[in-house]
């Protein structure tokens, strides 16, 4: 893994089932971008498993793995959410929610048994998902007259930058996307080319 890539899933994984001492643990993995996505996915599972007692989960968000949360949902402290989160770390995943839905089977598992069960359930859910490596990119904007169009296009090709949008009405306006690790070098090349007017995209705070 490089600094301008991250690992995630692009679609929900297959439902998994892990059984131990009568208890059933249904495992799910969802791609998520926001905490609202997390809540929607959990609500869907609560409708599907309306007789289940525990919906334990962990999520991680951000291309730089900035945000995470683990929830035991009534199980003993750190016996469910953190073992699930440990699997997110083990597989190095972000923008993902993993939920383990437990139906109690009548026999208490103990804290050690719960930790093992939720860890296994999370592992199975992740393994039933398709993991993808995504690049972190950044964009900037280029404006020029028509006589500089070929220069801008050729420069983008030479620097392995991608023109993801163009507007060619009164003059030429391009949106350029580039890998994060290459951004400064590519941006400076465009900026130093006579006839090209370059501006950065303002990042949301």
TrEMBL record:
One Pfam entry name: Impact_N
Membrane-crossing segments per the record: none
Any one of the GO CC terms: cytoplasm
InterPro entries per UniProt: Impact, Impact_N, Impact_N_sf, Ribosomal_Su5_D2-typ_SF
BP GO terms, sorted: regulation of translational initiation
Domain Impact N-terminal per the UniProt entry, residue ranges: 21-126
Family under the similarity heading: Belongs to the IMPACT family.
PANTHER family given in the database record: IMPACT FAMILY MEMBER YIGZ, IMPACT-RELATED
Protein name in the entry: Uncharacterized protein, YigZ family
């Amino acid at each position: 893994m490089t600094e301008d890539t991250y690992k995630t899933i692009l679609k929900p994984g297959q439902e998994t089932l892990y059984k131990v001492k009568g208890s059933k643990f249904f495992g799910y993995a969802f791609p998520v971008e926001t905490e609202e996505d997390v809540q929607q996915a959990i609500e869907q599972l609560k409708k599907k498993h309306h007789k289940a007692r525990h919906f334990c989960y962990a999520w991680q968000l951000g291309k730089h793995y900035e945000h995470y949360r683990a929830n035991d949902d009534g199980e003993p402290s750190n016996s469910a959410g953190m073992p699930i989160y440990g699997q997110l770390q083990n597989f190095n995943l972000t923008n993902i929610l993993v939920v383990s839905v437990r139906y109690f089977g009548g026999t208490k598992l103990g804290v050690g048994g719960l930790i093992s069960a939720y860890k296994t359930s999370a592992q199975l859910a992740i393994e039933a998902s398709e993991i993808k490596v995504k690049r972190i990119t950044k964009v900037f904007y280029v404006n020029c007259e028509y006589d500089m169009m070929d220069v801008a296009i050729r420069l983008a090709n030479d620097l392995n930058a991608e023109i993801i949008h163009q507007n060619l009405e009164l003059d030429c306006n391009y949106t350029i996307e580039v890998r994060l690790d290459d951004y400064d070098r590519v941006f400076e090349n465009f900026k130093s080319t006579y006839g090209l007017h370059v501006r950065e995209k303002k990042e949301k705070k």
